């Protein structure tokens, strides 16, 4: 994105592997006047919790006091915890876990959109992106399993499509997309890296650069779609 007027970028989930790399890369590139990084583990003005709408509203209020955001990236996600992994079979389904995964992977990003999209400039190219996943594609699902993660990312894809349609009516140059970063060497993917083909496990810095390159090339007709780290569209 070329700087023509004062603007900012926002990274939600800036304490994670990909989020922190995105924040660092954008800061180093100096394309934006301000790069805001928010995360659940951060305190004060940098705190945000996708399970707490009040904290999302507070983060948006802080951004509203500066240059308008032309780029918002949600880099948060939940696949497993130390005590709970993704479901291998329907016998593993648990309502509390499903609700939590949906809250982080779908509902949280939707609430970020609710509070941050109104801050993005009208009549200018701006990008709202959320990290999704290839496994959230229904047409690409040939293995099953990972019920909550797959379903919550599919829900995220639908929410992004809805947002893209509505926002297009207000700003014909807005772009709202889901991004699949590939398998990145982070805590989220660590338990599953043994199955990753050689050369397909990316470090966080490379992943951030790849995603920003994809964002740079996006056009208005791409809004509402899902793209991988090579810029290739993934069908829903």
From TrEMBL:
Gene3D superfamilies: NAD(P)-binding Rossmann-like Domain. This is SDR family NAD(P)-dependent oxidoreductase. It comes from Altericroceibacterium spongiae. One of its GO terms (cellular component) is cytoplasm. PANTHER family: NAD(P)-BINDING ROSSMANN-FOLD SUPERFAMILY PROTEIN (PTHR43544:SF12), SHORT-CHAIN DEHYDROGENASE/REDUCTASE (PTHR43544). GO terms for molecular function: oxidoreductase activity. InterPro entries: Fungal_SecMetab_SDRs, NAD(P)-bd_dom_sf, SDR_fam. It comes from the Bacteria.
């Amino acid at each position: 994105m070329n700087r023509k007027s004062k603007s900012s970028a926002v990274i939600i989930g800036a304490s994670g592997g990909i989020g922190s790399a995105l924040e660092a890369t954008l800061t180093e590139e100096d394309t934006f006047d301000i790069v805001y990084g928010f995360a659940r583990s951060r305190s004060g003005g940098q705190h945000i919790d996708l399970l707490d709408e009040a904290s999302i509203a507070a983060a948006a209020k802080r951004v509203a006091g500066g240059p308008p955001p032309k780029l918002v990236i949600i880099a948060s996600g939940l696949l497993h915890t130390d005590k709970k992994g993704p479901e291998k079979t329907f016998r593993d389904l648990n309502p509390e876990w499903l609700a939590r995964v949906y809250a982080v992977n779908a509902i949280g990003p939707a609430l970020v959109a609710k509070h941050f999209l109104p801050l993005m400039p009208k009549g200018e190219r701006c990008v709202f992106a959320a990290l999704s996943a290839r496994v959230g594609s229904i047409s690409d699902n040939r293995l099953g399993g990972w019920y909550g993660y797959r379903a919550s990312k599919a829900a995220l894809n639908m929410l992004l499509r809805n947002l893209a349609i509505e926002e297009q009516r207000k700003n014909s140059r807005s772009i709202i997309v889901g991004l699949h970063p590939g398998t990145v060497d982070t805590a989220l993917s660590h338990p599953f890296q043994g199955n990753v083909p050689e050369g397909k496990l990316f470090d966080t810095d490379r992943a951030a650069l790849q995603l920003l390159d994809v964002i740079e090339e996006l056009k208005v007709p791409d809004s509402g779609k899902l793209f991988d780290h090579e810029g290739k569209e993934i069908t829903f």
